[in-house]
């Protein structure tokens, strides 16, 4: 399986760290706390990429892994929908409660990115379940 895990993790961690240094909350908390929070938000948005890469390389996904990633995708979609609805319901006041500058929109953008990353997998999962397949087979273009 190690030959299938060819995702260089620094391609995910380093950009998230740089982005956290550039765009982080403008709250009264200590700068270290704000940087960690931003790094966490950005890293969480792309944390599933290595797993998706392994599944893409193997082409066949075990049922328990497929169920987990699908459940994660549904949870991320619902979380994203929740935040978008909260922003609409408060007429944008929620964004100002998170601070000012680029941080509030980046939090929302991170939710959207994570949702779209998992949406492609969820599509193939549903297609597989509807087709009655126990094992999910991914095309080479996923991820």
From TrEMBL:
<keyword id="KW-0931">ER-Golgi transport</keyword>
<dbReference type="GO" id="GO:0005789">
    <property type="term" value="C:endoplasmic reticulum membrane"/>
</dbReference>
<keyword id="KW-0813">Transport</keyword>
<dbReference type="GO" id="GO:0006621">
    <property type="term" value="P:protein retention in ER lumen"/>
</dbReference>
<keyword id="KW-0812">Transmembrane</keyword>
<dbReference type="Pfam" id="PF00810">
    <property type="entry name" value="ER_lumen_recept"/>
</dbReference>
<dbReference type="GO" id="GO:0016192">
    <property type="term" value="P:vesicle-mediated transport"/>
</dbReference>
<dbReference type="GO" id="GO:0046923">
    <property type="term" value="F:ER retention sequence binding"/>
</dbReference>
<feature type="transmembrane region" description="Helical">
    <location>
        <begin position="7"/>
        <end position="25"/>
    </location>
</feature>
<feature type="transmembrane region" description="Helical">
    <location>
        <begin position="105"/>
        <end position="126"/>
    </location>
</feature>
<protein>
    <recommendedName>
        <fullName>ER lumen protein-retaining receptor</fullName>
    </recommendedName>
</protein>
<keyword id="KW-0472">Membrane</keyword>
<keyword id="KW-0256">Endoplasmic reticulum</keyword>
<dbReference type="GO" id="GO:0015031">
    <property type="term" value="P:protein transport"/>
</dbReference>
<keyword id="KW-0675">Receptor</keyword>
<dbReference type="InterPro" id="IPR000133">
    <property type="entry name" value="ER_ret_rcpt"/>
</dbReference>
<feature type="transmembrane region" description="Helical">
    <location>
        <begin position="64"/>
        <end position="85"/>
    </location>
</feature>
<comment type="similarity">
    <text>Belongs to the ERD2 family.</text>
</comment>
<keyword id="KW-1133">Transmembrane helix</keyword>
<keyword id="KW-0653">Protein transport</keyword>
